[in-house]
Write a structure and sequence with these properties.
globular, mainly alpha, single chain, 478 residues, 20 helices, 2 domains
Length: 478
Amino acid sequence: MVTDPRAPVWRRRDSLCLVAVLLLASSARLAFALRAPLFVVNDSLSYVLPAWELIHGEGFFPLFKRPPLYPLLLAKILWLFGEDPQAIATVQHALCLAIVALTFILGFLVAGTLGACVAGALSAVSGPLILTEHYLMSETLFSVTLLLAVMTFMLAERGGSWRLAAASGCLLALAALTRPIAQLVLPLFAIWLLWRYWHDRKKALGLVTSMIMAFAILVMPWMVRNVIVQGTFTIAGGLGEGIAVRTIRYGQRFDFRAADPSESGLIRSARRIYRDEAADGSAFELAARLRDELNISPVIADGLMRQIAVEAIQRQPVYYLTGTVGMFWDILSGRPARLRQDWVPWRGIIWDERIAHLLPRATPLQDADFANAERVISVYDPARWWAVVLGLALLGTIMPPSGTPRRWPLLLAIMTLGQVFSAAALVGIEWRYRYPLDPMINVLVGAGVAGLATRGIRLWRQEEPSGREPSSIAASPT
């Protein structure tokens, strides 16, 4: 077992601090939740419709690109509390209290009591987090499962427990069944364990095997289901659609012409549709047009989109890489919250008649109280302080407070940056992809604040009290 003598010890004061942070988070969410309707985007329908069909006995058939966990959560909410959009928002706000608590605990593990208080308080009043949990989207559930996986992994890595390693694999599988990008964390965790236990290969292999097997056991049934239903062994499709979005939107100028003039009729027709949508700068209708006009399955359509996009990227790799770096920076620095844009997000959205009653709309009372709702989310908006936030996060990564494990901030930083860069490379600028990672950024900010504070206190204690001269008493001869 690898022990860590620098790991902080939880005391009664930490429990009191956690309660205070949760009270702050509850107050912020109560102040906002009753003033705003549930927010939706175009993608929201693809989550709520399978949930509604499931509770009404029509089967469970999420879209090819949607993993099952969030629709299953929605089904449970609708079954327990009725078909009320506000019930979904209430449950997700409750989940975000778990996010705040987990942020506090992670902050404690990484940076002690002060770091935990800073990280927890920032997450408690964060405007983007409050907005994200008010959306009918999977980000809140993803954040909970990912934070649980990270916390459990840290405890497994510290104590060398194969049971905790297996638990982290299970939790990471739940995160992947919510958003497939979580799969990219699994190899990072495996490499980290091999590095941490390099001197004990048997131990390292045992921990990695436990984690990977637990992950596989949970995701395998859904992947087998996708083989039967969709014809492909995957947690979820959509990679082709995502990378198509990456190459079409944001005013990009990729070349989608065929490299081989004699290519088959199917790919030639798909390329024509792809170029049409690229000319409009929109990828929303691309997948639907491919399926409808070419009469092909979602799997084949996704494969065609991936092939055309990858060919275009291979022709212009430098253009793709520089664009990805720019989008990575845009996502990382963030965008200030725009509540008015969130408030009426259903313009042009058409929902199935069976669930039209679930399409939320603001009441006159909520519209009249818009200004107060906007004040709640303006208390702390990290995008307005991005230079300070990222500077403190960097400081927390390289100079965490003494008395805590120095490697864990590095793990959080690598994972956060890797997730953001992957999103930029595979999809492009989607601001909401950053928000589930905000709690981990807040932990690094807390580590930076705690590191500055501990070093400042140490320097202050080493100084002589003001107004006193150093004493020098010469010995006199007897």
